[in-house]
Amino acid sequence: MAQAETTIDVLIVGAGLSGIGAAAHLTMQCPNKSYAIVEQRADMGGTWDLFRYPGIRSDSDMHTLGYRFKPWLHEKTIADGPSIHEYVHETAEEYGISQHIHFGHRVISANWSSPDARWHVTAKAVDGGKERHFAARFLFMCAGYYDYDQGYKPDFAGEADFGGQIIHPQ
After folding, report:
1. Could you give the count of Cα atoms lying within 13 Å of 62 in the half-sphere of its Cβ?
2. Buried b / exposed e across 25-60, counting CB within 10 Å, b at 16+?
């Protein structure tokens, strides 16, 4: 027996800076539209939740990277990771977004159905639990460009002969 689909207007994939921003815009500009967010990690924040090494910071100023609707008011324009992570959380709290997030679920398929005029999306629990099924009129991909399972590792000529330590931030 197939599990029932949750039918919504918009499905957002990713609860990082972009996904939370998209949800806030939906809340403000389309208050009658339903939405959900699927996030594979256990917390929102994306990059700013994943990377926690000492000294992590944005390489863009927060007046540009941040939300127009929630101006960056902190003293440091080039912000550290924990401050950005907190900013994402504050935004989600202010706009009631957290209740719409399905943490610990990775999208494994997204199929458009012309007869239904909807996306049919399956997300599997990362802990091996049950799948969730969504039917959405609009699919908003905010998953970023990182492979959270394994960082991109380019080929380096002579790497096998290198005697030093190679460190990858992910």
Report:
1. 22
2. ebbeeeeeeebbbbbbbebbbbbbbbeeeeebebee
* pLDDT greater than 50 at residue 148: yes
For position 1, what pLDDT does the model report? 44
CA distance 152 to 141: 20
The structural domains of the chain, ordered by start, are 5-161 (3.50.50.60)
pTM above 0.90, yes or no: no
Neighbours of 125 (CB within 10 A): 15
